[in-house]
Amino acid sequence: MPSEISIHDLHFSYPSTPSSLPRFRVLKGIDLEVERGEFISIMGPTGVGKTTLCLALNGIVPRSTGGTIKGEVVVAGLDTRQHPVPELASWVGIVFQDPESQFFNMTVEDEVAFGPESLGLDPREIRERVDWALTMVGMSQHRHRSPFQLSGGEKQRVAIASILAMTPRILVLDEPTSGLDPIGKAEVFRVVRELKQREQMTIVMVEQESEKIAEFSDRVVVLHDGKVALVDTPDKVFAQVELMHEIGLAVPQVSELAHLFNTRRNTRYSFISLEGAHQVLTRSRSENAQHVICNTTNESSSTSSGHHRLKTEPCIVTEDLWYSYNGEVTALRGIDLEIEDGDYVAVIGQNGSGKTTLVKHFNGLLKPTRGRVLVKPATRNLQPATLKDTTDLTVGQLAQTVGYVFQNPDHQIFCATTREELAFGPRNLGLPEAEVRRRVEEALARFDLEEYADIPPAVLGYGLRRKIGVAAVYSMRPRIFILDEPTAGLDWRGTMELMELIGEMHREGHTIILITHDMKLVAEFSQKCLVLREGRVLAYDDTRAVFKHSKVLRETQIEPPQITALAKQMAPYGMPDDVLSVGEFYAAYCGRFWDELQL
Amino acid sequence: MSFSFDLYVQRRSWLHAVDPRVKLAFVFLGTVLMLTFKNLLIMLLSLVVTHLIIFSAGVPDHKVKWVWKAMLPINILIPVLWVIFYPEGPTVLFQFWFVKVTALSVVRGVSLALRLDAIAFICFTWLFTTDQASLVRSLVKLGLPFEWGLVLAIGLRYIPTFYGLYTVVSEAQQARALDLTKGNFFTRVRSYLPILVAMMISALRTSEKLARAMESRALGLPGVKRTCRRDIRFRPADYVYTALLIVLFSLLLTLRFRFGLGTHPLYLF
């Protein structure tokens, strides 16, 4: 049987912009064969060309993007060089990462009908296909709504339906969940699971979530430096923890755990799922209700071990904070909060729970509808600072104290060079030019951006733009740092590097407020955790305590990290129920089963 | 949190059911009429009629308020400028420095502003009650290429999106201590530059993605005639509306040119 997708020695370079820059070679010889009905996941560091590869599958690369291509791509028996994109579209459907910019109709129904209409199908058949596709993704009841008013998960489901309606043989999903909240992610993965089980479709999914990749894929393709570095079944790929980390990619936490056991205890574990790990680790272990207390066996010196800190002064206080947009949508409903100086607070909750609305009050972008927000502004001399109402402070005064890194770096980037970009904030603060220059150079060095200092940031890759966004706020030296999903769209290495930098700033005394959907990061890095739901505080406590009480997380439909869930499931065997990292799990497990492991 | 803002109001009203081509004719003929009349009372009457139409179609108050809010600067600017630069008529209401405020120029200024309001509301009867698909469909039926219709629809669709983008970008730059309230007019205009540049870059990225998404949905498939899930068709009622529209239009036009209706800003004849 011929392959459904056959890529042979594919090279591709984008046309260079501006032309002074060297041509950007993305793909450097890709070979890949995919069988019909296979589920393939593609992993790779940021900027490695995952999206480019997806676009090459339906001919957008190089037909619409321009650039130079070499090699061959054959999909469903069609050579992409010989067929225009709209023709390939009925064979290869692509769901893009950003749900917002793939809609151009006013109702869900019209959106889904658009593809079949382009194919010139009979109106009756179009209606049947629309019904079927919407049922497949569970969006039938929303057919008359505007796609722009849906939640992230719903949008992505509509995007999938609009592709399914063309009944392609191959479905390509380019990071379909990267911008979604936990509920949205779960919704999309549920649909993908359905498709895999019910339809005999060949599916290619680009994803960063290794746990999900392990669950779905028949094979995993790892891209590195424009080439295929690994192609194998998930268990084989995720067993190579060191190689994956070297490339800059994550593996499931249970695979990391297996690796830890294998290197330290000479075991031959290979875990890719929670169930698998649970089965092996509990085999021949007796149940024992006596718990090992995790804190005492805390082997990993994670940054979250701030238990002995003295209580310090609050730097942000909110008192009965209410906020409503246009007097219509109430986003915050009476928030009382104290954030201490030097704290590291993770803010979690589904989209629409009020996370961003809340933190926008901290730097005065929003002013309370009711109640008040107090912030301790920076002082010029060493006078003791006092809390001040944000309504009495100017944008400049607040920006000097509270730095806010926006979710999308492109909303902040506009300068002709990176250096200019970093100087923009300090200049707005009215600092003398010498001081501005000093700060810019320091920020460039700290964020490892020197080689890009004179390049327009807008043409750099996403990971770098992200870093420049953070550096541009860093150069203003705020005491308090707010970061709104800073790691979204970054690979494992980019995430770790950024989290390390944030950790460093925290250790230097900065207060960190981190909005994120990544529970692994919350567990590993934050000291405190603020859980919001529908504009109210559901919990505000030490991160460990929040993860210990799974009720809180369950109430707001947030899944704890895999390793935390595993430990919880193994509680009958005496494992602690507040494990936050792989290292902690390992230590607790060894502590609990030490004698048995000696055997 | 982003708020999408659609012009279209989804309802099942009599006006929503009207064929979009009839509504388009209404917009065209209505605009022509408004441009031929100069009378304050006629403008007011037209506004009352369009408001009745809009409300009868179930358009909520806040949409109507939004239009008035958007028109506010024009409603202030035009009468004021008119009064300052075009004093006419014998009745001087009052005078200060070099400005002579006359009754006639006040009436004329106000009726000019109201004329624009009237035209705006005529257009909004169409935009509020016609969904994008039938809007494009009607334009295509009238002979416009599908792509053109699509471009127009996307243009209308993305106005609110870009407004949302403007809000986010201006907040993002304010977080970097960009003060939009400081300084004189020119410094302020200059300080909007960072926002505009960042918006342009984002808009370019969006448009590129949008183009890819459309191609991936087989737009422009060679050798295939695009079909339509639901076609628009003239119902008996639509013929009645069209006839009514033509009769009214001819009547008003005759009154205007044969009998001089509404040529004076204040008096009907």
Please characterize this protein's 3D structure:
The complex is a heterodimer of chains A (599) and B (269). Chain A has 599 residues and is an alpha/beta fold. Chain A has 3 domains: 237 residues, Rossmann fold; 86 residues, no CATH class; 235 residues, Rossmann fold (3-Layer(aba) Sandwich). Helix content of chain A is 38%, strand content 21%. Chain A has 24 helices and 20 strands. A 6-stranded mixed β-sheet of chain A has the order 6-7-8-3-9-10, with helices on both faces. A 6-stranded mixed β-sheet of chain A has the order 16-17-18-13-19-20, sandwiched between helices. In chain A, strand 17, helix 18 and strand 18 form a beta-alpha-beta unit. In chain A, helix 11 packs across helix 23. Chain A is globular and about 75 Å long. Chain A starts with a strand and ends with a helix. Chain B contains 10 helices and 2 strands; from the N terminus they run H-H-H-H-E-E-H-H-H-H-H-H. Chain B has 269 residues and is mainly α. In chain B, strands 1-2 form a two-stranded antiparallel ribbon. Chain B has 2 domains: 166 residues, no CATH class; 78 residues, no CATH class. Chain B is 68% helix and 3% strand. In chain B, helix 7 runs antiparallel to helix 9. The longest helix of chain B is centred in the middle third of the chain and has 29 residues. The chains are: A alpha/beta (599), B mainly alpha (269).
- N- to C-terminal separation of chain A? 51 Å
The number of distinct helices of chain A, counting runs of at least 4 residues, comes to 24
- β-sheet strand percentage of chain A: 15-25%
**Can you identify the CATH class of the largest domain in chain A?**
Alpha Beta
Largest sheet of chain A: 6 strands, mixed
What class would the helix/strand composition of chain A place it in? alpha/beta
The percent of residues in helical segments of chain A reads 25-40%
Radius of gyration of chain A: 25 Å
**CATH topology (fold) name of the largest domain in chain A:** Rossmann fold
Mean residue pLDDT of chain A:
90
Which chains share the greatest interface? Answer: A-B, 77 and 58 residues
CATH-level-2 architecture of the largest domain in chain A: 3-Layer(aba) Sandwich
Q: Whole-Å distance between the termini of chain B? A: 54 Å
Identify low-pLDDT runs of chain B: none
Low-confidence stretches of chain A: 293-308
Shape of chain A: globular
